[in-house]
Specification:
Blueprint (H helix, E strand, L loop, with lengths): L22 H11 L5 E2 L14 H9 L14 H13 L10 E4 L1 H11 L7 E6 L3 H9 L3 E6 L10 H5 L6 E7 L11 H14 L2 E5 L23 E7 L12 E7 L5 H13 L5 H4 L2 H6 L4 H5 L4 H15 L3 E2 L8 E6 L9 H12 L1 E2 L1 E2 L10 E5 L4 H20 L21
Parallel strand pairs: 1-11, 3-4, 3-5, 5-6, 6-7
Antiparallel strand pairs: 2-8, 7-8, 9-10, 10-13, 12-13
Length: 428
């Protein structure tokens, strides 16, 4: 019998999606190679929009370059881990030492490793919807089942703890909290986080708190570290240098374990084993951590009135308010807006078709809402990293396209999107 000549991917990838860098992004690259200028708003990459890593961090890496040429401990260099401990202590998290800190190649690697060390086939993890899709993908890749709890637009994308509680089963192992939230920009109130903490404690769930945008809040929104609320179960706080410190390329993130650490010794040993198998994370970037966390927090100027991120967000809020078609729960944190389209004005609107049309005809790349594991097709995500004039131009093009849909000049349905976004790329 002749063997199949095609090299086929692992079946484990069948239900794994990451459309933020998927076919739309590849189509954008094709258009750029053909000479078109594309405004790419699909990824939160500060360097692409002119932001620089603070100079003090760059100098710290240069000064320690000789110490970055070899492997380091699998958990990371001690100065970086100790700096993370000090930050946690300043925030009111008690009992953390450098032994409970793992440095990884960005939070992305740590999401995978922490779930891989925990899950058995069929275990369930409560994940917000919308979510940062790596969480759902990592649960799936590690044999688990992502159970999505709704964060509804009508409630400002803040979850209802009672709804979350109804999703807990005997197979539930963990609860994921993303705060400030990507993609919505929601910042969860203290009362909601407290209820989620009590829920996790009642059921013995591991809490994974993704806090990569911890210092990016606007207009007085309060960021509450989840680890200050979780005491009677294990809590993993994940953060890093990528966003607040505009250092995505350094690939430095950390996971800090608090709460019932003494009851999780076997799990933490398993995580250290996985960390050892990849030897260590990027050493040079780790030398920037102590300076970053202990130095001047330049993010504060960027998120204050007059700052670049604040003013760009203001343009998004104004554009949504003035639009005939757009609806927006104002983002209170992070660097994104999850923009909705009024389906009463555009009843046939389809987010994937819209994203394709916007790219092909208006040369703007956004991420359709279904990329973030939502059951509706009425939203899209953009980043507020561009400057204010660029965002004004973007929303002028969006309004123009939506006007074409409304007038019938261009169809709003999904039928013609298949040549770039095939059915297999769509979330079910």
């Amino acid at each position: 019998m002749k063997s199949d000549p095609n090299v086929r991917p692992s079946g484990a990838l069948q239900h794994v999606r990451y459309e933020i860098r998927g076919r739309l992004a590849r189509r954008a690259q094709e258009l750029e190679r053909a000479g078109y200028e594309i405004i790419s708003l699909n990824i939160g990459n500060p360097r692409a929009f002119g932001f620089r890593t603070p100079e003090t961090m760059r100098l710290a890496m240069i000064e320690n370059l000789a110490q970055a040429e070899g492997y380091c401990h699998q958990k990371g260099i001690f100065p970086a881990r100790e700096a993370v401990v000090m930050q946690q202590q300043e925030r009111g998290v008690a009992g953390v030492t450098a032994e409970e800190v793992f440095i990884g190649n960005g939070v992305s690697e740590l999401i995978d490793l922490t779930l891989r060390a925990l899950l058995n086939d069929g275990d369930e993890v409560l994940v917000p919807s919308p979510d940062y899709p790596l969480w759902t993908a990592a649960v799936t890749l590690n044999g688990g089942r992502a159970v999505h709890y709704p964060c509804r637009p009508a409630q400002g994308f803040v979850p209802d703890p009672a709804e979350v509680a109804r999703l807990v089963t005997p197979r539930t192992r963990a609860l994921v909290v993303i705060n400030p939230n990507n993609p919505t920009g929601a910042v969860y109130p203290r009362a909601v986080l407290t209820e989620l903490a009590r829920l996790a404690e009642r059921h013995g769930l591991v809490v994974f708190s993704d806090e990569i945008y911890d210092q990016m809040t606007y207009d007085g929104a309060e960021f509450v570290p989840m680890a200050t609320l979780v005491h009677d179960t294990l809590c993993a706080t994940l953060a890093g240098l990528s966003k607040v410190y505009r250092a995505c390329g350094l690939r430095v993130g950390w996971a800090v374990f608090s709460g019932r650490v003494h009851a999780a010794a076997d799990y933490l040993n398993a995580l250290e084993l996985l960390s050892s198998l990849r030897l260590c994370s990027n050493v040079m970037g780790q030398w920037a951590v102590q300076t970053a966390l202990g130095g001047h927090q330049s993010i504060r100027e960027l998120i204050a009135p007059g700052g670049r991120l604040y003013e760009s967000r203001a343009v998004i809020l104004e554009a949504a308010q003035r639009s005939r078609f757009l609806r927006l729960a104002p983002p209170r944190g992070a660097m994104y807006a999850f923009v909705g389209v009024d389906e009463s004005a555009l009843p046939d609107f389809d987010d994937q078709r819209f994203a394709l049309d916007l790219l092909e005809h208006k040369h703007v790349l956004v991420a359709p809402g279904v990329s973030f594991n939502v059951p509706y097709r009425s939203h899209f995500r953009i980043t507020n990293l561009p400057d204010a004039p660029t965002l004004r131009e973007v929303f002028a093009r969006i309004e123009e396209l939506l006007g074409e849909y409304a007038s019938g000049e261009r169809r709003a349905g999904a039928a013609e999107a298949g040549n770039v976004l095939s059915a297999e790329t769509r979330f079910k």
